[in-house]
Amino acid sequence: STSLPEYFVVPSSLADQDLKLYSYSFIGRRMPLWSWNHPNGSALVRMANIKDVLQQRRIDQRICNAITRSHPLRSDIYKSDLDKCLPNIQEIQAAHIKLKQLCVNEPFDETEEKWLSSLENTRWLEYIR
């Protein structure tokens, strides 16, 4: 994948041939990328969707098992589909524009309650939270 770094961390139980084979299954060949870990063993791994729905469960299970085996406490994996729970870039940009308009164009002599309501309606604070 041209959008991944040259070197990145992968669980040692995944063989190179597995990685090469699996990479074709991910959109944009974006293999799971170990992004962060905590001293308690928790880790954040990002990965693109798997193209072939029929292969998705097998590949996902193999990769999740490898990640679990690399965890010092062998904890269960929690997966979250961020596409469903995070705003897209256009929504973030629109919220930022609304925030700028509110801060520049909205008179501050309005009631505090109305201004705070307008701020909430931009969704900016929700997105940066």
From TrEMBL:
Source species, domain of life: Eukaryota
UniProt GO cellular component terms: cytoplasm; membrane
InterPro entries found in the cross-reference section: Myotubularin, Myotubularin-like_Pase_dom, Prot-tyrosine_phosphatase-like
Every Myotubularin phosphatase domain range: 1-129
Any one Gene Ontology BP term: phosphatidylinositol dephosphorylation
SUPFAM superfamilies in the record: (Phosphotyrosine protein) phosphatases II
Chain sites annotated for binding substrate: 88-89
Family according to the record: Belongs to the protein-tyrosine phosphatase family. Non-receptor class myotubularin subfamily.
Protein name per UniProt: MTMRA protein
Organism: Sitta europaea (Eurasian nuthatch)
